[in-house]
Amino acid sequence: MVYILLGTGFEEVEAIAPCDILRRGGVEVAFAGIGGHLVTGSHGIAVKADVTVEEIDRDKLDMIVLPGGLGGVSSMEKSPAARDAIRWAWENEKFVAAICAAPTLLSQLGITEGKRCVCYPGLEHEMGSAKMEDASTVRDGRLLTGRGPGAAIDFGLMLLKVLRGEQAAQQVQTGMVYQNA
């Protein structure tokens, strides 16, 4: 099970595109809302979460995904339940994925220390000892990061590849008629 955290002000495309791609690839995905089931993104699009962040079933958790959006990241930072779920996932050897501004929260939690990753341009100074790369997405073991909204499809395909393999990711990419630049 993949849980995608939604906090008020999340970047919609960074949540919806990976969810869609993972579901196309046969992965069970749930949106986990911070502060309730109806969460409004940074561009006014409200999304109904499947569960609240407090209701995440850690026994089923394979991956936790953090969309960016400064408001959404701030919501995650202020939520003890969100921070605990992220920390638990990392400490229990689950995949942890973050895109745009969200890798900065992983840096605060010590998850990106010495790891290769990317974040939204201009936020690199908040990444501590992370090894910043020039790419749209980066995988370093169980840590998966994406640069920003324009990388949301590549990010989703990377998550699918990690969970279901190269062939599943390629099938979804072909079915979507997506050709990355």
Automatic annotation (TrEMBL):
Top-rank taxon, per record: Bacteria
Q: Name one GO cellular component term.
A: cytoplasm
The protein's matches in InterPro entries, at most eight in alphabetical order, are given as: Class_I_gatase-like (IPR029062), DJ-1 (IPR006287), DJ-1/PfpI (IPR002818), Prot/Nucl_acid_deglycase (IPR050325)
Which residue range or ranges hold the DJ-1/PfpI domain? 2-161
Q: Which SUPFAM superfamilies match?
A: Class I glutamine amidotransferase-like (SSF52317)
List the protein's name.
DJ-1/PfpI family protein
